[in-house]
Each structure stands twice: as C-alpha cells, then as structure tokens.
Design brief:
Length: 278
C-alpha cells in the first residue's frame, strides 16, 4: 500500500510507523486512520517484524482530529451523514482471528496484535492523539511531550473507549481530572500518574526508544511476547481463577516449544539467543 499521511519503515526486526502531517502537528484525518490501520496489520503479518514503534513527524505526536474536519461536522445539518463521510463505520474495526470482539474495534485492535506496540510520544498528544497512545502496550514520552484529553473543551464526551482505558492506567480520580478539566499536563506529571512508562530527554528520545525495541526484538522470545500480551489483555476480563487456569495451560505449551529449549540453551552456552517464535 502506498502511504500519503504516514511513513512506514522496517529494519532490525522493528516496524516504525510515523504519523506524517508535521505542518498540522500530525492532526488526525480519516485517511490517516485508514493508513495507520493498514500499516499496523501489515506489521502484524510480517514475520520479519517483532516490535512496532508508533511516533510522530516533526515536533508533535498528534494534535487530535483535524479542526477543519470538526468545523465541517459542527456546521453540518445532517450530523450522521457527515460523520459517516469523515469516519466511515467508526464502530467497526479489522477482523483479527482469535481476538476478543472488544479488540476488533477501532484503535482497540492494537491490543489484539501479536507484537508489542511502543508509543514514542515525541510531542503534544491531544484528543484522539492521546487516545491512540493508550492502546499502545508501552508509552515513552519525550520531555517535550504534552497531553490533553481535549474533549470537554470541544463540547464532546469521552470518546473512542478512553473512559475504559484511561482509568485502568491512571486510576479513576486521575482519569476524571484529565477528562473533566481537559487541562494540559506535561511529561513529568504524565509519568507521576502512570500515563507513561518513562520520560526521556528530547535529544536522546528516538535512540532510547529504539534501543528498548531492539532489546525486545533481539533478546525476548517472540512467542513469549505474543502469549504474555494476550494473557494481560484477556486477563482484564477474567477472574483470578480463570487467569490461573490459562497460565497453567500456556505453561505446558511453553515447555514443549522450541523457544523454551533455545531459552535454556543460549543461557547455558552463554551466547546470544536465536529465538524463532515457535
């Protein structure tokens, strides 16, 4: 697929997807959403890819929905028709075999991908731009990053499942604060409340995120990453007993797999691992 509003690169077992409308702080458009979904699914299918990085071009990550589109929607006499033109079927997502229906919805499909998705938040992330980061598995922020839910200051509501995702990351009270006030917070506060995993100086940002991705790609079993990610997200809907049953079943499968044998062998032989994902 030829991309116009994102960049897509694969090297060193890492797929890097870059939102690429820097003059608009990578403001979200329907085309960008379509291209992003296609790129994520392509990375998911590519056997050469073990980790995915999502970032933004220029000084911003994503400023949210393009205000020109929102203005057109606000002036429309037929809201439903205009919304469909801008977003298509905004309730349907890609069909991913074996995934929960919850994870086959827009944005939430990132949780169904077999590979870790790292959000590299290089600058402002607001509204939908913030929502996208919540569906990444890990979030690394530049010290220049800023965050806002934005919705309440646009006369909107907690969109795109953020009312489910955000409290699970930062707690109910912090989620309400961010959603009700729609205030802008900096990277330090985002780290303090658990919105991001790490804050990195801008000068070292891209290099450090990539080094983390390389650690996963080169030293962790792709099979282990795949199974653990599925355990974590499915576990959000399970009882403790159900999670224990799944763990016991998956442990037996792991003991019979090639990556387990390689995991023991490379440790005893004091050499780099050569995991295959099998």
């Amino acid at each position: 697929m030829a991309y116009e509003e994102i960049l897509y690169d694969v090297s060193d077992r890492i797929a890097t997807i870059t939102l690429n409308r820097p003059a608009r702080l990578n403001a979200w458009t329907p085309k960008m959403g379509e291209e992003l979904e296609a790129a994520f699914l392509a990375a998911g299918r590519d056997e050469q890819v073990r980790v995915i990085i999502l970032t933004g071009a220029g000084r911003g990550f994503c400023a949210g929905a393009d205000m020109a589109n929102l203005d057109g929607l606000a002036q429309s006499e037929n809201i439903a028709e205009k919304l469909h033109q801008l977003s298509g079927d905004r309730f349907a997502g890609p069909q991913i075999a074996g995934a929960r229906p919850d994870f086959q919805r827009p944005n939430a499909y990132l949780m169904a991908l077999d590979k870790p998705v790292l959000g590299a938040i290089n600058g402002p992330a607001a509204g939908l731009g913030l929502v996208i980061t919540l569906y990444c598995d890990l979030r690394f922020a530049s010290d220049q990053a800023r965050f806002s839910t934005a919705f309440a200051r646009r006369g909107l509501i907690a969109e795109y499942g953020i009312s489910w995702m955000l409290p699970r990351l930062v707690g109910v009270s912090n989620a309400l604060d961010l959603l009700l006030s729609a205030r802008l917070i900096d990277a330090a506060e985002a780290l303090r409340i658990g919105l991001v995993n790490r804050v990195i100086p801008q000068e070292q940002f891209q290099a450090e995120v990539r080094n983390y991705a390389l650690e996963l790609a080169n030293h962790a079993s792709p099979r282990s990453l795949r199974v653990i990610k599925k355990q974590i997200y499915n576990g959000l809907f399970q009882t403790l007993g159900e999670a224990l049953d799944v763990a016991n079943e998956e442990m037996l499968k792991s003991l019979a797999c090639q990556d387990f044998k390689e995991g023991i062998a490379h440790y005893l032989e004091k050499r780099p691992a050569a995991f295959t994902g099998n």
